[in-house]
Write a structure and sequence with these properties.
This protein starts with a helix and ends in a 15-residue tail after the last helix. 46% of the residues are buried. It is α/β, with parallel strands linked by helices and 456 residues long. The strands form three sheets. It has a nine-stranded mixed beta sheet.
Length: 456
Amino acid sequence: MSSSSLVGRRSFLQTASAAAAAGLFVGTGRSSRGQDSPNERPVFATIGLRNQGWAITSKSTGLADFAAFADVDANVLGANLEQLEQRTKKKADGYKDYREVLDRKDVDAVMIATPDHWHTKISVEAMLAGKDVYCEKPLTLTIDEGKLIEKVVEQTGRTFQVGTMQRTESDQRFLKAIALIRDGRIGEIRKVTCGIGGAGASPEIPAVDPPKGLDWDMWLGPAPKAPYRALPEMRQGYGGGVPLYTNCHYAWRNWFETSGGQLNDWGAHHVDIATWALGASDTGPSKITPVSYSMPVDYKDGYPTVADRFNVPTSFEIRAEMPGGVPLIITSSGDNGILFEGTKGRFFVNRGKLTGKPVEELESNPLPEGAVEAVYGGPVSGNHTANFIDAMKSREQPISDVWSHNRMLETCHLANIAMRLGRELNWDPTKREIVGDAEANAFLSQESRKGYEIDM
């Protein structure tokens, strides 16, 4: 969002927070200790612990105390409780049901790193329980979920941080990229390309018994009822130690029922930076065109015709028409990162490099003093959790706020809808709906499975 709208929204949220403390909003009766004692070391709990759950926890133990963990996999829960004790010399309580965490009065904030289909339910219920929230990206499974989260943030006045860490990474590479653009180093932007990589297809994956210790029904939660599926081959590297082909651990990213493939995974990082650089964080695209794409299974009316293999796009080129007619290309081809092209030059940025003639010219013509800080909105902490805790203390919103995140993620969600239906979509960024296409608009939401609706 623009700096002016962010300041306005922050002021509103400060007012909302004060009103909530006075009992003027629904769902704030169970306020946490953090709102009453913002200067104390906060007490956190993590919900969803495999891989990224432990990653964000381990990065935060120097700044917060962890009182509780929750995970539906007993093996993951136990292993992480042991790791926490080894790291901090303190014990935390473990739960299968996250609601027991939300009932605790001593927990100020929750860190959510579950699969995507659980994010909205836990986030909303945590805010209504008086907790501040840190939730991993992508924040939502659907566009309407984003609207709901925004509503509850405003209703409760809670601080909410999304895990798009490229906004706060310690070497400031992405912040410098935006500062270059704002300082006119490439002139007017003519094109932005986000390379986010493709996804692999899978063979037929049979239904088998879930692993011992995993509550499969609760893992599915709001997602449609389905059998647990897995093949014996194991994943290697990051996220390893689980089946390579499954509809559960790690590979849930390859199923629309629980995620959105590369568009919602890497897209949530690079499209975020691109949208921020374009000054489009409080609006969005007007048109989404699936230039080319490949689906791993056949689709009918936007739904896969088989249920036993990965179903998200494997390769793609998407064109999003951004404000001012600037094309934003999202592609599975090329180097992972963002290429900015303007009337006076171009440069490329990713997590390993910032390259191009405008970057080389910084040696003789550096950015103005404070240019990076101006992008960030103040001194750069370089630590995502520190930014979250600072926002908790000030009762403001952090650098990765829900509004800017949802706006950019709408582009990713729309790209997936366009590929599922095989057609161009016209988007109204003011009404936040697809123009003249009732079938496509039906994909803006997904009904929760009975028994796992959001507890409002």
